[in-house]
Amino acid sequence: MFIDYRTVQDHARGQWLDIFRSLAPALDDAVSKNGRHVRCPNPQHDSPDGFRLFKDSNETGGGICSSCGSFAGGISLLQWVNDWDFKTTINQLAGHLNLTSQDTVKPVQRSVQQVHRPLSDEEKKKGEQRKKQMNAIWQESLPLEHAESEVGRMYFVRRGFSATRHIVGLKPVIRFHPAMPYYHEGTCQGNMPCLVSLVSDKAGKPVTLHRTFLDKEGKKLSPNAFPWKESAPSAKKIMPLPPGVSMTGGAIRIGEPGAILGVAEGIETALAVSVTTGQTVWPCVSASMLQKFIPPAGVREIWIWCDLDRSKAGVKAAHALKSQLTNKGIQCRVNVPPMPLVDGEKSRDWADVMTAMGRMGFPAFRTH
Question: Are residues 280 and 242 in the same domain?
Fold first, then answer.
């Protein structure tokens, strides 16, 4: 039985919060705090405040995650959060709304250009404002080699990198902002030192900024820096994308790719692999982004350097990416840190391996 999605949308309007309560338990926290930032429901994205439903979500069903992307309507949001295909989502909604095929007609197949509606004037204006804001932040930021970027250099030194050798190649895509405003639930909590990284989409076009907030000693910002206790803030945030823009498939492009390219979750992991093996490695920001990475033309082999964590999100994302790329004829290799987790440890990455084991902890890397 095929249900017309347009009829489903019409019947769901004004009922999306109730629908989410019934069909998507993972959204319970977001529904109860509608419009406020909550933990991302994607188990592969460990962000304590990266997701929120739009304030008009009961009408539209829309929501956004700082790393996973924006979902304009309830159908796409349900597909994402429940890992459903389009047909399953429509049938589940039709069952919840008590619709049958007699209520609907089979939709006409439309081209991609027709499916994606043009941006409204308000959305275009918002997009230009966001681009202007990000450009201003990038211009205000300093190269890591700058005398006033010491706190940013200290962050990398604490992870085992050389302040004079290893950060030189980061200059085009990673900078330091001495006083970045930190927002929590719409309120500025103060200005913090911050690493600012340029995130590009699958075509290589810069689309947003990834920020790592630090304290004055060059440590990643701790929840203890803030007075609230109800939700731990995230030290890593991505600036909202302009409407109509997607970073799916993209990464932070540190260095030029060759026939072989490495990908990882975090900046520190990518840099550790690069300085230890000489391989060009691009950080994809998160496990969920890693899973969706799309290699640029000319790359014929991908080395996936995943994190080892108790949730196994990194390993699962790595193998999901390997499966997708292998089906497209691209060779893949998954590399997992060879150091087991000990009690109290949440995760290990390749920066930990570099610090503890040096070159001996890394597999041999061939350049051709």
Answer: no
Give the burial string for 189-203 (b: 16+ CB within 10 Å, else e).
beebbbbbbbbbbbe
- Structural domain of 21: 5-115
Answer yes or no: do 45 and 93 share one domain: yes
Q: What is the CATH number of the domain that holds 78?
A: 3.90.580
> In terms of domains, do 86 and 191 share one?
no
Task: Give domain status of residue 286, yes or no.
Answer: yes
Average pLDDT in the chain? 85
Length reported for the chain:
368
Amino acid at 252: I
63-65 and 51-53 beta bridge pairing: antiparallel
DSSP code for 233: P
Q: What is the rounded (10 degree) CA torsion for 131, 284, 171, 366?
A: -150
Q: What percent of the chain has pLDDT over 70?
A: 88
Q: Do 43 and 134 form a contact (C-beta atoms < 8 A)?
A: no
Averaged over 136-150, what is the pLDDT? 95
Domain boundary among 72, 98, 115: 115
Asked if 242 and 252 sit in the same domain, the reply is: no
Q: Is the pLDDT of residue 363 over 90?
A: yes
Residues 5 and 7: their CA atoms lie apart, in Å, by 5
**Token code pair at residue 137:** 């932040």
Tokens of 80: 């994402």
Query: Tokens 């820096």 label which residue?
Result: 225
Copy the structure tokens of residue 242.
Answer: 């302009």
- What kind and span of H or E run contains 175? strand 174-184
Q: Is residue 186 part of a domain?
A: yes
User: Residue 210: helix, strand or coil by DSSP?
Assistant: strand
